[in-house]
Amino acid sequence: MKLTRAPSRQPPETIVALIDVVFFLLVFFMLIGRMDATAPFDVTPPTAGSGADMPAGGVTVSISADGTLALDGQLLDRVAAEDALASVIATDPGVLIRVNAHRATELRHVLPLVSRIESLGAQDVVLVVTPETAPPVQ
């Protein structure tokens, strides 16, 4: 009696190689793709004038880290500071207004003041910044 072996089947192809290719494609497209939302129009950010001298004249509004306001070195509450700014701007709408905020000041203290200055009709508002030369101290 002659016994024959059953024909050997080839093992099915593994899907591991295909998974690797898909993974590499995913990583590739994640690296080259843009993940941020783009504006539907051209946006050119402002240019900082670091190293340039501050323009002379005008009014300086200082904001401390806790939100305390001073107008040209005189401590004022928010209402008094806004009233003083309103009278200055009403007298001269082209007056330069500098906003000098402490580096630890939260935006909730700065942005409403800048919006209010704009609504009063100020034409020139300068935000005073210090160029970073060393890592910030935490």
Question: How is this structure best described in words?
Answer:
The chain has 138 residues and is of the alpha/beta class. 32% of the residues lie in helices and 15% in strands. The protein has three helices and five strands. The chain has a five-stranded mixed beta sheet, covered by helices on one side. Strand 4 (96-101), helix 3 (107-119) and strand 5 form a beta-alpha-beta unit. The radius of gyration is 31 Å and the shape is rod-shaped. The chain starts with 15 loop residues before the first helix and ends in an 11-residue tail after the last strand. The model has no long low-confidence stretch (mean pLDDT 80).
Characteristic key phrases:
alpha/beta; 3 helices; 5 strands; 5-stranded mixed beta sheet; 138 residues; rod-shaped
> N-to-C terminal Cα separation, in Å?
89 Å
Describe the sheet with the most strands: 5 strands, mixed
**Largest sheet, spatial ordering of strands:** 3-2-1-4-5
* Oligomer class: single chain
Note poorly predicted spans.
Answer: none
Please give the structural blueprint.
Layout: H1 16-32, E1 59-63, E2 69-71, E3 74-76, H2 78-91, E4 96-101, H3 107-119, E5 124-127
Parallel strand pairs: 1-4, 4-5
Antiparallel strand pairs: 1-2, 2-3
Quick synopsis:
With 138 residues, this protein is of the alpha/beta class. It has three helices and five strands; from the N terminus they run H-E-E-E-H-E-H-E.
